[in-house]
Amino acid sequence: MSRIKGAVRRRVYYCRVCDVRVPIILRTDRRTCSDMCRKWSQRHPGHKRVHRLRGTVPLPRKVSQRKPKTLAEALRLLAETRAYAAKLEASAEALALELTHQQNAQAELRERQEWAAEKKE
Questions:
Q1: Does residue 56 lie within any of the structural domains?
Q2: Are 18 and 49 in contact, with CB atoms under 8 Å apart?
Q3: Are residues 44 and 2 in the same domain?
Q4: Cβ-count burial of 104 within 10 angstroms (0-12 exposed, 13-18 middle, 19+ buried)?
Q5: Average of pLDDT values for 6-21?
Q6: Is residue 114 domain-resident?
Q7: Which of 16, 12, 13 minimizes the C-alpha distance to 40?
Q8: pLDDT band at 26 (very low <50, low <70, confident <90, very high)
Q9: Taking a C-beta distance cutoff of 8 angstroms, is the pair 16, 32 a contact?
Q10: Within 13 Å and on the Cβ side, how many CA atoms surround 108?
């Protein structure tokens, strides 16, 4: 085996849509890792697809998958779900507050730019 062929075989390829490593067993001329990414690239040319497993918030299991056997267990699960909901609400509120701060700072910068432009004239 020549040096060039060995280097090509060892090269790591990444999906052009979601930046996930393309398995070696797939053809080396593939641009995407799956049919989902291929379809995404056709429907949204030039946009990256957020990989479905990255950055997701782990949600509690469905109620049908964790049926409580006793009242105590049901109350415990209810308390867990309420705590999780409160955590999500707090994070959403913090993000909304941060967005408000950014919008206020942006408005202030615009006012300064307009004032500076008026002062030059």
A1: no
A2: yes
A3: yes
A4: exposed
A5: 69
A6: yes
A7: 16
A8: low
A9: yes
A10: 6
Say if residue 76 is in the same domain as residue 44. Answer: no
76 and 105 both lie in a single domain:
yes
Domain that holds residue 115: 65-121
Residue 54 lies in a domain: no
Residues 6+ apart with CB under 8 A from 32: 15, 16, 17, 22, 38, 41
Residues 70 and 119 in one domain: yes
Q: Is the pTM of this model over 0.90?
A: no
106 by DSSP, 3-state: which?
helix
Instruction: Please tell me the total count of domains within the chain.
Output: 2
pLDDT at 2: 58
Residue 41 lies inside a defined structural domain of this protein: yes
Reported as a single tens digit per residue, the pLDDT across 30-81 is 778 778 888 888 888 888 877 655 545 566 666 666 677 889 988 998 999 9
Q: How many residues does the chain have?
A: 121
C-alpha to C-alpha distances, 84 to 44, 69, 80, 97, nearest whole angstrom: 34, 21, 6, 20
Q: How far is CA 45 from CA 16, 50, 63, 94, in A?
A: 11, 14, 39, 33
